[in-house]
């Protein structure tokens, strides 16, 4: 029954690019919301536009939908440039954070509304609505009103309504933002499995980096109206292009110091506390007597009670606080810098409480050289 809602079968194309954005710019008065953005979105992929409030991600999504007209640049959906195409002719499904369900209509009528507007026969509507509700596991609540549903159920109704018209593209505007954390995590899995099953190209706007990392095949990070990095989630997380991305996506321990020596592949950096750290570098990076910033992820820092080594890959410190969070704990260690070092500890393998560090403990922090990442100014 899902076959007819499979958009890959409904909209076959030779071009692997489902959406092509070239040189997109948009201004609101004197404010430049989006500046020269170019993006290619592969057919059948799940792509997230990720960034802080005001970065331009929602403007890009609205431009794809036809709700904002670009001042410059072009938007192509499939093989068609859609700059001048009105919203209702773009064949796009869209899901909003607030669901936008009609409160006086049943679930079935909400899902079938788009088909009714398009003039689909009643028999066709009934079959398509039943199929869409089965797809999101809501067939049993077809006659209920939205107010009789949970938040997660209402979100699934909105998704079914967006997919029932067999759109060539699904746009999601902070779709899970109104849900509590546990339900949001459940819906992330459901949404990803559904998108993969149906095969629809999906573009989501979010400021939630965990959501983007969990759902996306590709993440497009935006800041100040520009694309600052694009790539698979693991690449964006492991190899952020600058300090903004390293700070915005995940948690990082940032360091800065003076380069006192260097080889072709490594810089020796003296921190303000006098410690020496070896930092991997590339050609043209980190000249002697210049400043170099770098970061280490908390999960890449190891904690022990032994002695610090002399290989520029360990430091002594004092535990300030241990924040317990169930499966993991964050251990904050003072090493004589303005900010403590955050160390991520896994609690699952601790057989006795003695193994857990406590405030005041003297510890050694260590890491592998490959887990240290130099930052581009």
What is the structure about, briefly put?
By secondary structure, the protein is an alpha+beta fold. It is built from 9 helices and 20 strands. Helix 3 packs across helix 4, helix 3 runs parallel beside helix 5 and helix 4 packs across helix 5.
The main pleated sheet reads as: 6 strands, mixed
Proportion of helical residues: 10-25%
Number of helices: 9
Number of domains: 2
Q: Termini distance? A: 54 Å
| CATH fold annotation of the largest domain | Rossmann fold
Taking all Cα atoms into account, the compactness measure Rg is 25 Å
Task: Identify the CATH homologous superfamily of the largest domain.
Answer: P-loop containing nucleotide triphosphate hydrolases
Give the overall form: elongated
Strand content: 25-35%
Strand runs, count: 20
Major sheet: arrangement of strands? 6-7-8-3-9-10
CATH architecture of the largest domain: 3-Layer(aba) Sandwich
- In the predicted model, the low-confidence regions spanning at least 5 consecutive residues are none
- Top-tier CATH class of the largest domain: Alpha Beta
Question: In words, what does this structure look like?
Answer:
This protein is an alpha+beta fold and 377 residues long. It has two domains: 231 residues, P-loop containing nucleotide triphosphate hydrolases (Rossmann fold, 3-Layer(aba) Sandwich), CATH 3.40.50; 124 residues, Beta Barrel (OB fold (Dihydrolipoamide Acetyltransferase, E2P)). 23% of the residues lie in helices and 33% in strands. The chain has nine helices and 20 strands. The strands form four sheets. Strands 6-7-8-3-9-10 form a six-stranded mixed β-sheet, sandwiched between helices. A five-stranded antiparallel β-sheet has the order 13-12-11-14-20, with no helix packed on it. A five-stranded antiparallel β-sheet has the order 15-19-16-17-18, with no helix packed on it. Strand 16 and strand 17 form a beta hairpin. The radius of gyration is 25 Å and the shape is elongated. It catalyses: ATP + H2O + polyamine-[polyamine-binding protein]Side 1 = ADP + phosphate + polyamineSide 2 + [polyamine-binding protein]Side 1. It holds the Pfam family TOBE_2. It is an enzyme of class 7 (translocase). This is Spermidine/putrescine import ATP-binding protein PotA. Keywords: ATP-binding, Cell membrane, Membrane, Nucleotide-binding, Translocase, Transport.
């Amino acid at each position: 029954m899902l076959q007819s809602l499979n958009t890959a079968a409904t909209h076959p194309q030779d071009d692997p690019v489902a959406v092509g954005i070239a040189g997109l710019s948009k201004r609101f008065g004197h404010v430049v919301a989006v500046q020269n953005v170019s993006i290619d979105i592969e057919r059948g992929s799940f792509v997230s536009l990720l960034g802080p409030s005001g970065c331009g991600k929602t403007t890009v999504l609205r431009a794809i939908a036809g709700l904002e007209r670009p001042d410059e640049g072009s938007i192509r959906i499939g093989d068609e440039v859609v700059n001048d195409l009105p919203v209702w002719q773009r064949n796009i499904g869209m899901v909003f954070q607030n669901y936008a369900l009609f409160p006086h209509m049943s679930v079935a009528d909400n899902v079938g509304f788009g088909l009714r507007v398009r003039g689909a026969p009643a028999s066709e509507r009934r079959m398509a609505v039943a199929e869409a509700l089965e797809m999101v596991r809501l067939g049993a609540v077809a006659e209920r009103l939205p107010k009789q549903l949970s938040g997660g159920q209402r979100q699934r109704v909105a998704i079914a309504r967006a997919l029932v018209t067999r759109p060539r593209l699904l746009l999601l505007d902070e779709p899970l933002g109104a849900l509590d954390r546990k339900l949001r995590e459940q819906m992330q899995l459901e949404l990803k499995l559904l998108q993969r099953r149906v095969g629809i190209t999906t573009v989501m706007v979010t400021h939630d980096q965990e959501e983007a990392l969990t759902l996306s095949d590709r993440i497009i990070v935006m800041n100040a109206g520009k694309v600052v990095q694009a790539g698979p989630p693991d690449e964006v997380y492991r190899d952020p292009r600058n300090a903004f991305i390293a700070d915005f996506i995940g948690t990082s321990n940032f360091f800065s110091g003076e380069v006192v020596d260097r080889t072709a592949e490594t810089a020796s950096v003296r921190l303000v506390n006098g410690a020496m750290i070896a930092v991997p570098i590339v050609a043209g990076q980190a000249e002697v007597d210049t400043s170099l910033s770098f970061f280490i992820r908390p999960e890449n820092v190891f904690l022990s009670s032994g002695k610090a080594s002399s290989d520029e890959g360990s430091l002594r410190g004092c535990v300030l606080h241990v924040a317990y969070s169930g499966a993991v704990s964050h251990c904050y260690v003072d090493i004589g810098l303005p900010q403590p070092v955050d160390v991520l500890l896994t609690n699952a393998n601790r057989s006795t409480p003695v193994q857990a560090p406590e405030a005041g403990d003297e510890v050694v922090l260590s890491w592998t050289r490959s887990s240290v990442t130099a930052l581009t100014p």
